[in-house]
Amino acid sequence: MAAVAVQQVTDLLKNDSSLSQRTAELTVEAKAPTQPDIEYHPDAAKYKARTARRLAEDPSLPSTPLPEGFPKKLESPLVWQGSDFKDEKEWVYVLAPAHLKEIDDALKHFRGLEKPLGHISAATFPLPTLGPVLTDLAHVLHSGRGFFVLRAIPVDSYTREENAIIYAGVSSYVGNLRAVQDAPAAVAHIKDLTQTAPAQTIGAPGYTTDKQVFHTDTGDIIALFTLETAAEGGTSRISSTWKAYNELAETRPDLIKTLSEPWPLDGFGGTPAYTLRPLLFYLDEKVIIQYARRLFTGYRALPRSSDIPPITEAQAEALDALHFLGEKYNLGLNFQKGDIQYINNLSVFHARDAFVDTPEKTRHLLRLWLRNEKLAWKTPTELEPNWKRLYYTTPSDEHTFPLEPTVRSAVRGKGVKY
C-alpha cells in the first residue's frame, strides 16, 4: 500500500509541469551568486572577517602567481607613503609676487582678446616666467612623486568668472588638454548641494559633506582649485597606488590578479546596464589603477542596480584592500584658500574627510581633468573610448565654464528629469 502511495505522488509531480518549473527556478535562485555584504563606506571589521574567511577557505591564495608580465615590485619616486614627507614645502610651490602679477596681466590679456572662455590656453594666457616653472612641475606628475600644490591665488580679488579664467589659464601649462566633465562643460564644482538640490538627484559624495573613500577620477591629471575651505574637516588625502600595488604584490598577489580581471561597472540604469573592464592595468612598464567604489556598491540616489552581475567575494576584499592601504599610507594636504592641487590620477588615488560648513565658511572647489600630450602615459585599450570622449570629442573652443554648481549628469539619480 505504501509503495502505491509513493508512486502516486511521483506521478503527480511528473505531471504537474508548473510545479516542476517552479522547483527548477528555486534551484537556480539558490545557486545564483549574490552581492557581497559591502557598502560605499568601508567597514574595517567586515574587511578583516572577509580576509580571514577567504584565507581559511583557501590558504594558497598568497601563493597565487602574479598576472603574466606584472612586476613583483615597482621602483620609482611614484612609490611613497605619507610619512616620507616631513614638510609641506616638499610639495607646495608658493607663487611669488612677480608670478601673481604675471597671472593678473595674463587675465587682462585674455579679457582683451574678447574670446569665449573655451579659447583659454597657454597661447592666450601668457606666463613668461611662471609658465616654464609649471611645465617643469608637470614632469613631477608623470615621472616624479605624482603631485604638487600651487599656493595661492588671491581668489577674493577676482570675480567667479575671473577665477575660472585664471584656473584654466594656469592649468593649461600643466596639461594642454581639458576634458569635458558634463559636455560641453570643462569645469565641475565640488560642493555640498544637499541643502539646495533634491535628495533624489545626488548620486555621488562630491556633492555632500560625507567622507569620500579612496578612488580615482577619470582622466590623466586632476586639478582642484580651492575657492573656499570648510569651517571644519574636509582634509584632502592622497595616496600612492604604486605603494599599494607593491604591498599587495608581496602579500596578496591573488588580489592583484583579481584587480586585473574584468569587473562589472554599474551603468545605473543607462545603456548598457553595465560594462566590463579591469581596475588595474600594466602597460609600458607602468601600473595604472582606475576605479570608483560607488560603481560597485552604489551611493545614495544611485543604489546598486539589482539586475546586473554582483561582484565576487574576492572583488569585495580587493576593494577594501585598496581603500585601507590608501588610508595606511596617505598624506593629508593642508588645503588653503586659493590653492590648486594637481595629482597624477593614474598613480595616485585620493579621498576626503567629512566636513562641516557654516554660512561664513562653505567648502567649494573647482575641478579640471587635464592631459599633457607630451608627457602622457599610454592609455590602456579598455579606457581609450572614454578618454576619446573626454578629451577629443568636444573642441576646446566650445568648452563652457559654468559659474554655479550643479549635480553632474553622470551622477544624477535615476529618472531625474531636467
UniProtKB/TrEMBL annotation:
UniProt superkingdom: Eukaryota
Cross-referenced InterPro entries: AlphaKG_dependent_hydroxylases, TauD-like_sf, TauD/TfdA-like
Sequence ranges assigned to domain TauD/TfdA-like in this UniProt record: 115-369
The entry's keywords: Oxidoreductase
This protein's record includes keyword Repeat: no
A GO molecular function held by the record: oxidoreductase activity
Name by which UniProt lists this protein: TauD/TfdA-like domain-containing protein
Organism (species): Asterophora parasitica
